[in-house]
Design a protein that fits this description.
CATH superfamily of the largest domain in chain A: MetI-like
CATH class of the largest domain in chain A: Mainly Alpha
Number of strands of chain A: 2
Distance between the termini of chain A: 43 Å
Helix content of chain B: 55-70%
Helix content of chain A: over 70%
Radius of gyration of chain A: 27 Å
Largest sheet of chain A: 2 strands, antiparallel
Strand order of the largest sheet of chain B: 1-2
CATH class of chain B: Mainly Alpha
Distance between the termini of chain B: 50 Å
Number of helices of chain A: 14
Number of strands of chain B: 2
Oligomer: heterodimer
CATH architecture of the largest domain in chain A: Orthogonal Bundle
Largest sheet of chain B: 2 strands, antiparallel
Number of domains of chain A: 2
Largest interface: A-B, 89 and 90 residues
Radius of gyration of chain B: 25 Å
Number of domains of chain B: 1
Strand content of chain B: under 5%
Chain lengths: 314, 307
């Protein structure tokens, strides 16, 4: 009875998972198909792949066939294996090569913006959290409140005035239009998380470091930073995720379109003439998720931690 | 601190100064890029101006126009209300049930596998998801219509996002079945933190299955439910990215929400002051709802604490 129930639960969960991932499966599948194939029938494997399977099957069965197999009326039923493979490769690579040509600058921009932002957020967040957590000085509480109060203001309130500010500062069409506001906003959450972590560290630790003759800076670099690695990983991942996903702000602040990141770039691509070629578009969607997927594989644990743990309890 | 030297200012004051020195950059950035825009949102909403143009003080006229005269206000708030309520209903129920199912699985490895699997959609940029729904699932010869044709339901085939009668619902259903996000993991964490003693005590009392789900699990994950509720409401009131990408508020104003209207006023119609006023109104809505939420939705800790 228990086993039946467990099996049934498995089935339900697997079905929901399938339903969730289904669109992505079709995006992947269609990224290997030509436009006419997609229009001809939406559900269906790439023709090139079918050809290859057929050719491979025939070869496996050891049939002494002279490729290509002809249906008698000139239609080729099965191409030679190497030919089928080459054709599949040509179509598959074509979509991805075209997509890559378009999104490469967007990707590089995203990498740059993400890297600078995440470094800035990690550095500033941990530093101000360290100062606020370990030292007591007049106004330290007020400063902390000043920082975390900004969580109260939603993006919709500041979107338009932020644009006006960035415009007034002459930062439109630069990386700084993204990086500086991202760091300014991102450090808040980082400070909050770091501070609750530092608050939990025993004072003895710092005491003994001080007795050993370590200065403030040494304590920060040699004690605090190594200790806070897990927290740092969580903060960085959450920050990369939000920077990677931000669409509206890069879209607004890049009027000349030269500094688009992947999120705004995908929209530009989808509304451009390139979009008529669906395999390019679908290939671009898939490619845009690869870096995050690699990050996720590399750091599954802090990723899950970041999403679940206290990180979100603002 | 260790080197004594005659100081112009006291030791204590120097220490304080160095603390503020370290905080200088973070605080300067915060002030410039967060507090200045927040202030500007309020002040600029009292003016009528275009970017680079002269501005004219008009008092509360922007607010009066938005609340009383703008013909899009009422329909867009109704759309927002529908989308937000829909999101709240789905995000509070489906991911929780799924998390419960995963949590109840016997094998630890399967539980981990599913937790990882349901996180994968998070890795796809939101823009890509919305473009996929608009460009692959809802399009004329897209996945949904082709599936309907395949099973012979040709009468239901429609341009989901362009048909005025379906557009709003179609927008709401983007992301179906609504489990590809943080919610599942957050609920799962809540369910995992229910103490063993509680579960055992419940089992001894004969409280298992559905009864346990409603009597034990849900009260024990109220903090998580509260968190998701707040996040979903805030996202629902201020979110317009998906609508901007998929329908641009159309057909007509069938899917326009106030946030999108703010965007168009600022960046298409060059009515910056008016857009700021809409932003302030939405902030007021979010602020009010968050306060209500804090006050009337008790988390588990608060409930237990009051007893």
């Amino acid at each position: 009875m228990r086993r039946v129930r467990n099996g049934a639960m498995h089935l339900v969960v697997a079905a929901v998972a399938a339903l969730t991932l289904l669109p992505f499966v079709f995006v992947l599948n269609n990224s290997f198909r030509t436009n006419s194939e997609i229009y001809h029938s939406f559900f269906g494997l790439p023709n090139a792949l079918k050809d290859m399977a057929q050719a491979g099957g025939a070869a496996l069965r050891g049939r002494e066939t002279a490729f290509p197999v002809d249906a008698g009326n000139g239609d080729i039923i099965a191409a030679a294996p190497d030919e089928a493979l080459a054709r599949f490769g040509a179509i598959a690579v074509k979509g991805y090569r075209m997509a890559w040509r378009v999104i490469r600058p967007y990707m590089l921009n995203t990498f740059f913006v993400c890297a600078v932002t995440v470094l800035g957020v990690g550095l500033l967040g941990s530093m101000s959290a360290y100062v606020l957590s370990r030292y007591r000085f007049p106004g330290s509480k007020a400063v902390f409140i000043y920082i975390v109060s900004t969580m109260m203001f939603p993006g919709v309130l500041t979107l338009v005035p932020s644009f006006l500010l960035v415009k007034q500062l002459g930062l439109l069409n630069t990386y700084w239009a993204m990086i500086l506001p991202y760091i300014a906003g991102g450090q808040v959450f980082a400070t909050f998380v770091f501070k609750s972590f530092f608050d939990g560290l025993p004072e003895d630790l710092f005491e003994s470091a001080r007795i050993d003759g370590a200065g403030h800076f040494q304590i920060y670099v040699n004690l605090v930073v190594p200790l806070s690695k897990p927290v740092l990983a969580v903060v960085m991942i959450m920050n990369i995720l939000s920077t990677w996903n931000n669409f509206l702000w890069p879209f607004i602040t890049n009027i000349d379109g030269r500094h688009h990141v992947i999120a705004s770039g995908l929209y530009v691509l989808a509304t451009s003439p390139h979009a008529s070629n669906m395999s390019t578009l679908f290939a671009a969607y898939m490619a845009s998720s690869v870096p995050l997927l690699l990050l996720f594989i590399y750091a599954t644990k802090p990723f899950i931690q970041g999403v679940t743990s206290g990180a979100f309890k603002a | 601190m260790t080197r004594p030297r005659p100081a112009l200012i006291g030791h204590r004051a120097r220490f304080t100064l160095s603390c503020y020195g370290l905080l200088l950059v973070p605080l300067a950035l915060l002030t410039l890029f967060v507090y200045v825009p927040v202030m500007w949102a309020f002040t600029k909403s009292l003016f009528q101006f275009e970017v680079g143009g002269a501005s004219r003080f008009i008092g509360l006229d922007n607010y009066v126009e938005f609340i009383t005269r703008d013909p899009t206000t009422i329909p867009s708030f109704l759309n927002m209300l529908f989308l937000t309520l829909f999101a709240v209903c789905t995000r509070l129920s489906i991911p929780l049930i799924l998390a419960k199912l995963i949590h109840a699985l016997a094998s630890e490895r399967a539980r981990y596998f599913y937790r990882v699997l349901f996180l994968i959609p998070v890795l796809v940029p939101g823009v890509a998801v919305q473009l996929i729904w608009a460009g692959m699932i809802y399009r004329d010869r897209g996945m949904l219509n082709e599936a309907l044709r395949a099973v012979g339901l040709d009468t239901l085939v429609t341009g989901w996002l362009s048909d005025p009668s379906t557009a709003l619902v179609a927008v709401a259903f983007v992301g179906f079945p609504f489990v590809g996000g943080f919610e599942v993991l957050i609920y799962y964490a809540g369910l995992s933190s229910i103490p063993q003693s509680v579960t055992e005590a419940a089992a001894i009392e004969g409280c298992v299955g559905l009864q346990k789900f409603f009597r034990i699990d849900i009260p024990m994950v109220l903090s998580q439910l509260k968190l998701i509720l707040i996040l979903t409401i805030i996202g629902g009131v201020q979110g317009f990215q998906g609508i901007f990408i998929m329908t641009r508020g159309g057909p007509g104003f069938k899917t326009t929400v106030p946030g999108l209207w703010m965007y168009f006023n600022a960046f298409s119609f060059q009515r910056m002051g008016y857009a700021c006023a809409i932003g302030v109104c939405l902030f007021a809505v979010i602020f009010g709802l968050t306060i209500l939420n804090m006050r009337y939705f008790k988390s588990t800790e608060e409930l237990v604490g009051r007893r």
